[in-house]
Every structure is written in C-alpha cells, then in structure tokens.
C-alpha cells in the first residue's frame, strides 16, 4: 500500500499564525515605547517649571513683617472678663453703629448712617485696617489737633463728629462706656506707651510728585465703583438702615475734619485694604494708584465742619492738613495734594 505524503497546510497555517502574533506584539511594544517616550518628553518641561518655580523666590509684597504684629485677643476669652457684657455691647456698637445711633437708631439718632466698622475694619481688629490696637496703650495723650490732653471718650466723640458727621455721646452714657471697655480690652496686652507693628494705618511712602485726582478717577472707576457706586454714594444693606459699602463722598460721608480727609491717611488705608480682596499681605494697588485715588475721592463734595479751633499751634499741623494758615510758605493746594517732601524739609529745618 502506497504511503500518503504528510500535508504541509497545517504547518503553513501555524507559521502564519506565529508571524501574525509576532507582528501584533511588535506593534504593541512599539506603541508602548512611543507612548512612554511621549509622556516622558511632555512631562520634562512641566518638571523643569516646577523645579524652577521652587528655586525662584517670589517677591514679598507684604507691607509689614509678621514678627511682633498686633493681633486682637481671642474673642472667646471675653466671657472670662468681669465686664464681659459691657465689652460685647461695645463691639456691637462698633460693628452696627447705625442700628443704635444712626439716623433711625434705636438708642439715639446722632450720626450719618455709617458704622464705625466701615472704616475700622472687622470691628477694629484687622492689622493695618485702622484698628484700635494702640488706643489703650497711648491714651490719654496730648493731641496737636486740640492742644489738650484727651482720653478715649474724647477721641471716640471726635469720630462721631467728623467721620460720622454727627454729634458726640455723653461721656457717662452706657454706650460710651461700652465702646471704651471694648477698646481697652482689645489693647489689654499692649504695654503702656507702646505701638506694635500693624496698629492703625499703613504709612505709605511719599510720591515725588503731587497726587493726581484725574488719574485717581480712572483708578476709582476700575477698582472701586463696583462697590461704592459710580457716584460714590455707597451701597446700603437690604434693610436700608446701614451701609454694606460706605459712601466715599456726598452728604452721608465723612466731613472735611475727618482723618481720612488727609491724603496720607486715605492712601495708606486703601493700600492695605482696598479694593475688595486686598490685604496687607497682598496689596492690589500700587503706591501711585493709592495716592491718586485718595486725591480723587477727597476732591469730591462732602459735608463741611467748623475747624477754627483745630491746631492752635499751627506749626504742628500735619504736612497734608489742607486748611491754612501754616507756619510755612506752601499753599493749601500743595498741603492737600503734595508733593510733600518740600513741606517736610521746611518743617525739619524749623525744628
């Protein structure tokens, strides 16, 4: 019987299948290698960017160092004080002045509808937010504006008569005693005669030119009008009895005797706190913008005040007090807008 030759078809099929498998594996491995190479190549710039960012020291924009900065006592410790209720009422009056003492106040009607907190941020506790950190440690003291020794009640009433364009409180009233108690509590840990970093308002560097209201108007429109209004009249709370964002000029704003009517005070205040979102750690305005903004806001109409009794010794008037007479030859305009270096130089020569 003749033997049949073995069929080569299965062998060919097996070789073809093996070749196909090798081809697929080659494609897979090649794709994997290309993918890894691509990922490695694309991640290199990111890794380099992260490395460079870590090595690059970002500019420190803080207006003051954190060391030794004044901070308010923890509010939850008030309950330990023997006059806790009085302190709590004092804070309430600072935060919601209009509710108690505004045009429709439930205690008295003696002020313009602004709250003390509109200018003394976070009830006078914010570093460089016009806080009360140095009140207890520096009062009573002789003030050049009156030429007299003043205690805390007199200073508070100055604010009512100037910043709130109203009338002063009875020094013996419950409200006055409460506000004094609150301010004394805030500064209870500050040594007498001391002013720690972060108290009051930022001392902004002087410009080498006069502050410009025209440029300031542009700053206002970009940075401030969305909160304070295009007409500077502020934004009231839904109840309409206080201000969420205070008026910066007009009949309900501070008058010409207020501290913020001095450009250096206004400029330093907004530099550390404005516009919304700015802090002393991350200011949003340049020094030039802050000065020009101050010039614009304080060039607008606002209530007037009789100031003939201020600064009995005219040589003690601040460089930016905008009303004469002066002990130097510079004009009211220069005393208001600057440049201030010549005024300071003349003052130093006469010391």
Structure characterization notes:
There is one protein chain. With 351 residues, the protein is mainly alpha-helical. α2 crosses α7, α8 crosses α11 and α10 crosses α11. It is built from 13 helices and four strands. The strands form two sheets. It has a two-stranded antiparallel ribbon with strand order 1-2.
**End-to-end separation:** 139 Å
- The parts where pLDDT drops under 50 for at least 5 residues are 1-6, 28-45
Structural class by sheet pairing and helices: mainly alpha
Mind telling me the C-alpha Rg?
Answer: 33 Å
What pattern of helices and strands is seen along the backbone? HHHHHEEHHHHEEHHHH
Total strand segments: 4
Number of contiguous helices: 13
User: Which strand-content bin applies to the residues?
Assistant: under 5%
Task: List the strand order in the largest sheet.
Answer: 1-2
Shape field: globular
Average pLDDT reading? 89
> What's the helical proportion of residues?
40-55%
Q: How would you characterize the largest beta sheet? A: 2 strands, antiparallel
Core attributes:
351 residues; mainly alpha; two-stranded antiparallel sheet; 4 strands; 3% strand
Summarize this structure briefly.
This protein has helices spanning 9-55, 84-95, 97-101, 121-124, 135-138, 152-161, 174-186, 213-223, 225-228, 263-273, 287-297, 332-337, 341-349, and strands at residues 141-143, 148-150, 235-236, 243-245. With 351 residues, the protein is mostly helical.
């Amino acid at each position: 019987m003749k033997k049949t030759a073995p069929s080569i078809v299965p062998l060919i099929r097996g070789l073809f299948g093996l070749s196909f498998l090798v081809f697929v594996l080659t494609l897979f491995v090649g794709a994997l290698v290309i993918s890894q190479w691509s990922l490695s190549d694309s991640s290199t710039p990111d890794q380099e960017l992260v490395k460079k960012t870590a090595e690059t020291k970002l500019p420190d924009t803080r207006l003051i160092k954190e060391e030794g900065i004044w901070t308010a006592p923890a509010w939850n410790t008030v309950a330990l004080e023997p006059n806790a209720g009085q302190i709590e009422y004092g804070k309430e009056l600072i935060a919601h002045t209009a509710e108690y003492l505004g045009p429709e106040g439930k205690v008295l009607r003696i002020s313009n509808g602004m709250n003390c907190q509109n200018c003394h941020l976070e009830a006078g506790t914010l570093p460089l937010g016009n806080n009360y950190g140095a009140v207890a440690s520096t009062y009573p003291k002789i003030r050049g504006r009156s030429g007299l020794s003043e205690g805390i009640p007199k200073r508070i009433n100055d604010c009512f008569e100037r910043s709130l364009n109203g009338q002063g409180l009875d020094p013996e009233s419950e409200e006055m005693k409460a506000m004094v108690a609150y301010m004394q509590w805030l500064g209870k840990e500050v040594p007498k005669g001391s002013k720690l970093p972060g108290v009051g308002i930022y001392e902004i560097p002087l410009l080498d030119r006069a502050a410009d209201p025209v440029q300031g108007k542009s700053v206002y429109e970009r940075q401030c009008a969305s909160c304070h209004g295009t007409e500077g009249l502020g934004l009231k709370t839904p109840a309409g009895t206080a201000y969420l964002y205070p008026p910066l000029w007009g009949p309900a704003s501070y008058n010409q005797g207020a501290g913020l009517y001095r450009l250096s005070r206004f400029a330093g205040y907004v530099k550390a706190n404005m516009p919304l979102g700015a802090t002393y750690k991350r200011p949003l305005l340049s020094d030039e913008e802050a000065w020009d903004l101050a010039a614009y806001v304080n060039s607008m109409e606002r209530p007037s005040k009789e100031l003939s009794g201020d600064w009995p010794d005219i040589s003690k008037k601040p460089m930016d007090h905008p009303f004469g007479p002066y002990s130097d030859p510079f004009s009211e305009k220069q005393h208001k807008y600057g440049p201030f270096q010549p005024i300071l130089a003349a003052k130093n020569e006469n010391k």
